[in-house]
Write a structure and sequence with these properties.
single chain; mainly alpha; transmembrane helix; DUF2759 family protein; membrane; transmembrane; DUF2759
Amino acid sequence: MSHIILGIIFLLVALLAVVSVIRQLKFKNYLALLFSAITALSFGFFSIATIISELSNL
């Protein structure tokens, strides 16, 4: 059960990073855009993988 909570926290961080990607596109800050995109992709992947892994073990 604790891994599901961890996956949800990862998903919230990924969604916040997506908001940051949109903001950095508006400001044309390319270095911050790069880091935000990498964060969104990595946390998004790990959140989905964690949630799927926990749901398949039920």
